[in-house]
Design brief:
The complex is a heterodimer of chains A (278) and B (313). Helices cover 71% and strands 1% of the residues of chain A. Chain A has 14 helices and two strands; from the N terminus they run H-H-H-H-H-H-H-H-H-H-H-H-H-E-E-H. The longest helix of chain A has 33 residues. Chain B contains 14 helices and no strands. The radius of gyration of chain B is 26 Å and the shape is globular.
Chain lengths: 278, 313
């Protein structure tokens, strides 16, 4: 066998493996979309049918009446939007300070940041709940938004790794030109870290968009529910409204899929682990 | 403004003498830029951490101020059978899920990294499940695994296998959960991919010159240099697996059925804190979890010197 054919062989084998894996990853998703287009009768057909006949778009219309869809959508968008904004404003600034500025204590702060990642959220959950209770924030979106403006350890870590990989020359040149510290960061260094900021922003966007436990704890008023909580309302005593639920799930998932598909390259470039040791 | 107020400049020679060996000190801006996080650390981590330790020694609840009871919560937990059940369920999940997720995560990332055609589409496909809201994912799988009319048993039926009751069966409920969770490993695949991107091409070129085979390069270059990322995902994976909540909670309406086989540690913690309002008791549970996670992490860190390799070493 020549080297070239063996290389081709390898490519085919890899393709076959990837296709098999794709089936596993894709099938439930296609099932979700297909169910969103079925009537309840079609849903319970056995053996299951992949392609709904006929296509029923009514679920999408009905789902929006069954729950206050647009209120929940608005709440979800606001929480996701503001918490992502908080993360991309604060985390790069903190990470830049830890990676590129020389100050006593920055290594300790970095060490603590890593350590804090290991704290299970449940440990701080109860005191935080009580804190937000004292502030009268329970029932509002504030507990899900405000902490994002004070930094998230995992994101600070990822951004710090990225900043470490950037050369110091540009920063030093900007300083020699008399740019202030903040301008050096904002106009020179931050634009260079665009892809990392994007990755972190996307991570936060997805986490907030699909978060369940946070809203479950803090959003006690039905008017403040997110879509994630709203989905639960399709499960009732009378049984589950499969078609409606899958319609809302599809609507929730599609925008992020598109976002990911177009941003994936930058997204992956933005995550770097070199220098992980610190 | 603070910048302008700086003291009169010392003679240049003096600065040079002072800074010749040392790097410039950015104390002011360093702390200033890091200050949101320093405040965040105090308000959202340090203070809650200490208060929760304190609560764990009290009978605190929102309804009552509670009193100091020493180690009573901990002692009670030791004889609480639901606690032990939820504990062993969680260990079961961690022990099977974490290694499987690393194996499949690394394998998929390596396949994806081979520059095959349609790479960006595959990448999206593998990432897709992480984009499905957990509640939807739970319901979707409940239904895929439905013994009567679900897709999985439908498929098994075609090849002549009578499928189990999956989520309805005490034996199969946790394996079902592991299967579902493996469906959502896209995020760690992306992190492995990023790690593979980080490996310098020089190593592979050197391997090619030596005539190393694909398998050999994988074993001696790719895997060893990916160990820092595997290490990271192992630690984060264990922490995450111990916190399993949303899937079993939504699938069982918070009950952990059948027969407590889906009652996980954090679900029971949540019940205690927010259903029974035994916040002291729940805090004690949280601290036990914390100590277990810390001990495991320390063990892995200690052990990592033997198997984690960094580039350039």
């Amino acid at each position: 066998m020549t080297a070239k054919t063996s290389k081709n062989m390898k490519k085919y084998v890899v393709q076959i493996f990837l296709l098999i894996a794709s089936v596993f990853f894709l099938a439930p998703f296609i099932w979700m979309v297909s169910t969103s287009l079925k009537t309840l009768d079609q849903v319970y057909t056995f053996p299951p049918e992949w392609i709904p006949s006929p296509f029923v778009w009514q679920n999408y219309v009905d789902a929006m009446d069954y729950i206050p869809f647009f209120t929940y959508l608005k709440n979800t968008v606001l929480i996701t939007g503001f918490s992502t904004l908080g993360v991309v404003l604060t985390c790069p600034l903190v990470a830049y300070s830890i990676a590129k500025l020389n100050w006593k204590g920055r290594d300790s702060i970095f060490f603590i940041t890593i350590a804090v990642m290991m704290i299970p959220g449940q440990v701080t959950m109860i005191p935080l709940f009580l804190l937000f209770e004292k502030l009268n924030w329970i029932g509002t979106a504030l507990p899900l938004v405000i902490p994002a403006f004070f930094g998230v350890p995992f994101y600070i870590f990822l951004l710090r790794q990225f900043f470490l990989g950037l050369p110091n020359e540009l920063k030093d040149a900007a300083r020699i030109d008399g740019a202030g510290e903040f301008r050096t960061y904002w106009q020179i260094m931050l634009p260079l870290a665009k892809s990392a900021v994007l990755s972190v922003g996307l991570f936060q966007f997805m986490a907030a968009w699909t978060d369940f436990m946070g809203p479950l704890l803090y959003l006690t008023e039905p008017g403040s529910y997110t879509l994630s909580l709203g989905l639960q309302q399709f499960q009732s005593q009378k049984g589950t409204q499969w078609g409606l639920m899958m319609a809302v799930s599809t609507m929730m998932t599609l925008p992020i899929i598109l976002l990911f598909f177009f941003l994936q390259k930058t997204f992956i470039q933005g995550i770097t682990f070199s220098g992980i040791k610190g | 403004m603070l910048e302008k107020k700086a003291a009169p400049m010392p003679p240049a020679t003096q600065i040079r003498a002072k800074n010749s060996k040392k790097l410039r000190d950015d104390a002011l801006y360093g702390w200033l830029f890091a200050s949101p996080w320093v405040i965040g650390l105090l308000v959202f981590f340090a203070v809650p951490l200490i208060s929760s330790l304190y609560f764990s020694f009290t009978t605190y609840s929102i309804l009552q101020p509670g009193e100091f009871v020493g180690f009573r919560n901990y002692a009670e937990l030791m004889s609480d059978s639901v606690f032990w059940k939820s504990f062993s369920n969680t260990i079961y999940f961690v022990v099977f899920f974490v290694p499987l997720s690393i194996f499949f995560g690394v394998a998929l990332a390596m396949l994806l990294n081979m520059n095959v055609r349609g790479m960006s589409i595959y990448r999206t496909i593998f990432f897709l499940p992480t984009l499905v809201p957990a509640v939807a994912m739970a319901v979707l799988w409940m239904w895929l695994l439905n013994p009567g009319f679900g897709l999985v048993n439908g498929m098994l039926d075609v090849i002549g296998i009578q499928g189990p009751a999956w989520l309805g069966s005490e034996t199969w409920s946790k394996p079902s959960l592991i299967l579902m969770s493996l469906w959502g490993i896209g995020q760690s695949v992306v992190i492995y991919l990023a790690g593979l991107n980080d490996i310098s091409q020089d190593y592979y070129e050197a391997g090619d010159i030596d005539g190393a085979s694909w398998f050999h390069k994988m074993k001696s270059i790719t895997l060893p240099l990916l160990t820092p990322v595997i290490f990271f995902n192992l630690v984060m994976g264990i922490i995450g697996a111990f916190q399993q909540f949303t899937l079993p909670y939504t699938m069982t309406g918070g009950r952990g059925t059948p027969a407590d086989s889906m009652k996980f540690y954090v679900m029971y913690l949540y019940d205690n804190g927010f259903k029974f309002f035994k916040m002291g008791y729940a805090s004690a549970m949280a601290w036990i979890l914390f100590i277990i996670v810390m001990a495991l992490t320390a063990l892995i860190f200690y052990n990592s010197k033997k198997w984690v390799h960094y580039q350039g070493e």
